[in-house]
Design a protein that fits this description.
The complex is a heterodimer of chains A (about 250) and B (about 300).
Chain A: E1 4-15, E2 18-29, E3 33-37, H1 44-51, E4 61-69, E5 72-73, H2 81-87, E6 88-91, H3 102-112, H4 118-131, H5 135-138, H6 151-163, E7 169-173, H7 181-194, E8 199-203, H8 207-213, E9 216-221, E10 224-230, H9 231-236, H10 241-247
Parallel strand pairs in A: 3-8, 3-9, 6-7, 7-8
Antiparallel strand pairs in A: 1-2, 1-4, 4-5, 9-10
Helix pairs in contact in A: 3-4, 3-6, 4-6, 6-7
Chain B: H1 2-38, H2 44-48, E1 51-52, E2 57-58, H3 61-92, H4 98-112, H5 115-138, H6 150-175, H7 178-186, H8 191-202, H9 204-220, H10 223-226, H11 248-257, H12 266-298
Antiparallel strand pairs in B: 1-2
Helix pairs in contact in B: 1-12, 3-6, 3-9, 3-11, 4-6, 5-6, 6-9, 7-8, 9-12, 11-12
Classes of the chains: A alpha/beta (about 250), B mainly alpha (about 300).
The complex binds adenosine-5'-diphosphate and magnesium ion.
The site of adenosine-5'-diphosphate (ADP) has 12 residues of chain A, from helix 1.
Chain lengths: ~250, ~300
């Protein structure tokens, strides 16, 4: 296993009084794809949103334990959340492009980072769209509204928008769950390409998808991490009975 | 029991239907009466000329002009201030914090205060306090700001219309989906960048609705400007915010109560009323249309 990019130690999260994550210990390796699986409501999204501190937005959330990224505790007081989030991109379950042009969507991140040179921006936008495998479909309509794209295109645009900030980690929360099989296939191919450069964490409740795209799989159940290991092992010879039951479709 | 419910239900339905009919009837009567009374007078000439012969003849141009200036200066004050307040309330204040609750209470209260009280407040605060202070500090005691003018009238009107702006903008801000804010924050935008680049652009239609509603309200109210800026008659148009101004609503009031011959000016009164009615009516209609589009987007 490659070096761990993200390490969590006894990560426990409550929404008010309700516990959503119970003492999670996990090592997420660098420049590989780690999939989170488990029945809905088991805490996958909650865990993912801890990694870029998106849960900070929810007032009832209380977090104990540590999350280390490159060895640094991201919940320390002195951490600048805004900078942290530049390093950790996120792709959401429901594609959420801004009501702006395709160009402006991708340029959004670079612009808030202070890049205003038109030529530089155009370069970044173009390379991001290429890396997100959507350039050919949008290159002639850069200044049309992003809302006119199909669902699958919107989701790849959101990935391009994330890439434009040059993150190190990309978090994806069921990025293909609302898409048709062809678009899903494109996203999966894309993930395969992206892991050469990025550490990717993907939540999915599509078992085949996890098996296809990921190197490691973590199985969550009722807020606990039940099992974590190489995807091949989890899907062929899991150590724990619950994992096997879930994977073979006997519950969840 | 079921019969009783039926009777109550039937009674309520009948009562609502009756009140709808009654309201429609009143609106139609008002419209018909003003149209019949004013249609002959309502010409391009009437809209573009000054009153003449002690306001017994002539047009209402200065009143239209003054009303327009009033609502413009009022909007310049009320829209940014109301928008900022709405942003503070929705984005920054904790729902239960005492400061948010105080602002909400103040906004609700402001909306129920009779408009003449605003006029008196404007007189006391803007003219007798701020104006006198400005004259003493900047004008060496010379009288310039301590009297009714466009600025004080507009600011007083802005206070009156502030709740309308705040409520509309708040409503619009709440329709900006959480997913878009999260997308922005996840890209490393600060909260303020997110507000500036995602929340405010997404609330433009609400800010517009609020502005139009406020303008519609401000165009029709007279009491707030009675002591703070409106003039009975002016031979010239105002050229600075320290000038007084004429106003459509006040003009109607003046001609129907202060004129030397009320009956003779009746057509002028009707025509002026018609102008004011059409103005406020079309403004409100526009606001309703924008708002319904916004609501549809919500679904
Ligand atoms: N904002 C929230 N407030 C309270 N409870 C929440 C919130 N978000 C999620 N939960 C609860 O936390 C648990 C885990 O949710 P989630 O992380 O969304 O699960 P998953 O992504 O695995 O479906 C669920 O029981 C859910 O009801
Ligand atoms: Mg989820």
């Amino acid at each position: 296993m490659k070096e761990a990019k993200i390490v969590t130690r006894d990560l426990t999260l409550h929404y008010g009084l309700k516990m959503a994550l119970n003492s999670i210990n996990l090592h997420i390796p660098e420049k590989e794809v780690t999939a989170f699986i488990g029945p809905s409501g088991c805490g996958k999204s909650t865990f993912l949103r801890c990694l870029n501190r998106m849960n900070d937005l929810i007032p009832s959330v209380h977090i104990k334990g540590e999350i280390l990224i490159d060895g640094l505790d991201i919940y320390q007081k002195k951490i600048d959340v805004v900078n942290l989030r530049k390093k950790i991109g996120m792709v959401f379950q429901k594609s959420n492009p801004f009501a702006k042009s395709i160009f402006e969507n991708v340029a959004y991140g670079p612009k808030i980072n202070g890049i205003s040179d038109k030529k530089k921006l155009t370069e970044i936008v173009e390379s991001s769209l290429k890396n997100a495998a959507i350039w050919d479909e949008v290159k002639d309509r850069m200044h049309d509204s992003a809302l006119g794209l199909s669902g699958g295109q919107q989701q790849r645009l959101c990935i391009a928008r994330t890439l434009a900030v040059e993150p190190e980690i990309i978090l994806m929360d069921e990025p293909a769950s609302a898409l048709d099989p062809i678009s899903t296939g494109k996203i999966e191919e894309l993930i395969f390409e992206l892991k050469k450069k990025y550490t990717i964490v993907i939540v999915t409740h599509n078992m085949q998808q996890a098996a296809r795209v990921s190197d490691h799989t973590a199985f969550f159940y009722l807020g606990e991490l039940i099992e974590f290991g190489k995807t091949r092992k989890i899907f062929t010879a899991p150590d724990i009975k619950q994992t096997e039951e879930y994977i073979t479709g006997r519950f969840g | 029991m079921r019969l009783k419910n039926k009777i109550i239900g039937g009674a309520i339905t009948t009562a609502s239907a009756l009140s709808v009919v009654l309201i429609l009837a009143i609106i139609i009567i008002i419209l018909v009466v003003t149209i019949i009374g004013g249609k002959d007078k309502l010409t391009w000439e009437f809209l573009t000329s000054f009153p003449a012969d002690g306001m017994m003849k002539g047009g209402i141009f200065p009143a239209i002009y003054g009303t327009a200036l009033l609502v413009i200066v009022m909007s310049i004050a009320a829209v940014p201030f109301g928008t900022i307040t709405a942003i503070y309330l929705t984005e920054y204040a904790h729902e239960k914090s005492w400061i948010a609750q105080t602002i909400r209470f103040a906004v609700r209260t402001l909306a129920t205060v009779p408009s003449i009280i605003f006029g008196l407040f404007g007189l006391g605060f803007f003219i007798k306090f701020v104006g006198v202070g400005m004259d003493n500090w900047f004008m060496g005691g010379q009288l310039r700001w301590a009297q009714p003018n466009l600025l004080w009238g507009s600011l007083t009107m802005a206070l009156l219309t502030l709740p309308v702006v705040i409520v509309s903008v708040e409503e619009a801000i709440r329709t900006v989906p959480r997913e878009l804010r999260e997308a922005s924050l996840a890209l490393g935008a600060t909260k303020w960048q997110t507000i500036k680049k995602v929340v405010i652009p997404g609330s433009i239609s609400g800010i517009m609705t609020g502005t139009i509603l406020a303008v519609g309200r401000g165009a029709g109210e007279v009491a707030p400007i009675l002591f703070t800026g409106a003039a009975y008659y002016l031979a010239t148009l105002p050229t600075s915010v320290s000038d007084q101004f004429m106003n459509l609503g006040y003009h109607i009031y003046v001609m129907s109560t202060q004129s030397s011959n009320v009956d003779q000016t009746l057509p002028i009164q009707f025509a002026t009323t018609l102008v004011l009615l059409m103005l406020t009516f079309s403004l409100n209609l526009t606001a309703v249309l924008i708002r319904s589009r916004l609501r549809r987007r919500l679904k």
